[in-house]
């Protein structure tokens, strides 16, 4: 008898996704139909069948969701769940960057600017550029976040495809100033974590290979909401 009681706790389609062993699995279903439940039981089933917990990575969008997922798995498999990599995209990127930056003698002790820090910095920059009446800090940060999600830094030739035409030229300068100010403060915003991790892996393919070989299974909750960088 399966100690997870999969047949009792899952419907036939959920069970099919949980039991699938080889190749990628994509679960398409509406809200509230149990997609996260499938991921939770899939993780538990992998562990029950001999996959080492530390070789499983599960990512989602919020700390609350990550915590709930880990708690659910712990209820199913016990203390082994403590070795799982369950986190948000940004927490995963932060963990890897801090670890690998140390290994490569890079600046690892950077700070993270939260939303308030970002808005305050952007207000200052917009005022310095005389744009405080034309562009709201929230709007500028919104477009910059989209650009970073498309892996476009402030020097990218295609940046104009993201920024609104009416203020696009100004936003390029603002984006540049914003990134330079973050660097001066030895800081990153949340989107930088993903962008910088991708850049790091491109520059150090041996580090990327290490993580590719480390994780045997990667599970993504709310996959439909991911952007290009994620």
What descriptors fit this protein?
230 residues; mainly alpha; Rossmann fold; Arc Repressor Mutant, subunit A; 2 domains; two-stranded parallel sheet; 10 helices
Biggest sheet strand line-up: 2-1-5
Model regions low in confidence, pLDDT < 50 over at least 5 residues? none
User: What name is given to the CATH topology of the largest domain?
Assistant: Rossmann fold
Per CATH, which architecture of the largest domain?
A: 3-Layer(aba) Sandwich
- The arrangement of helices and strands along the chain is HHHEHEHEHHHEHHE
Tally of structural domains: 2
Q: Return Rg in Å.
A: 21 Å
Shape: elongated
Secondary structure tally, helices: 10
What separation lies between the terminal Cα atoms? 38 Å
Which structural class matches the secondary elements? mainly alpha
CATH class of the largest domain: Alpha Beta
Specify the CATH homologous superfamily of the largest domain: P-loop containing nucleotide triphosphate hydrolases
Q: Can you give the mean pLDDT?
A: 91
Helix content: 40-55%
Strands, total number: 5
